[in-house]
Amino acid sequence: VEVRLMKYFPMFVDLVDRPCVVVGGGSAAAAKARRLIEVGARVTLISESPNEEVGVLADQDALTVRRRAFKEDDIKETTLVIVASGNADVDREVSKIARAFGIPVNVVDQLNLSNFLVPAMIDRHPLQIGISSGGAAPSLSSRIRHQIEMLLPSRIGSLAEFARDHRITIKQLLPDSSSRRSFWRKFFDSTLVQRVLAGIDSLDGAEIPDLVETMTSSKRVSR
What is the pLDDT of residues 199-223, one digit of tens each? Predict the structure, then answer.
């Protein structure tokens, strides 16, 4: 069997309170900075002429702006770098320096200068889905993201929250791992979950003992 190797390893990175640098001051740079801010990163944006979008973020104290040209020292202590300068020379310089320091760098629309990619994202907090074409067809990734978004219920994140908040309780009630997997499979397929997704019912954890009893019994679970 032929094994096809992937070029990129898919992963989600915790950037909360981590220093990240964005080089560039246009709309693309502002968009990348905003995504980093949304996941709790400490963002520094470097640009000689940042636009109004960047100014708004700065006025909100969401990031730090250095209104000058990029310097090598700007990224020595950073976790990752995103470059959206619109200047080919700056793009190459920042990429070269970041790679030399062993810092992950993404240069917008410059796959050959990047060693990580930012996928198209679907956010149903805490559920997240990342979609990437490996840089081959970003528009296709965006199209697939839109198609999946149309299929996913808006409340599906609440199920992930429920599972997260009650994993320990379920583990105590069902010490056997195969029993837990069976429980969660039946739970996510249940009529109750469909009613929660439709906004008819809600979950608060009080129903867990009854759910475990019902879904681990020999009776057929209604779907």
Answer: 998 888 888 998 899 888 744 444 4
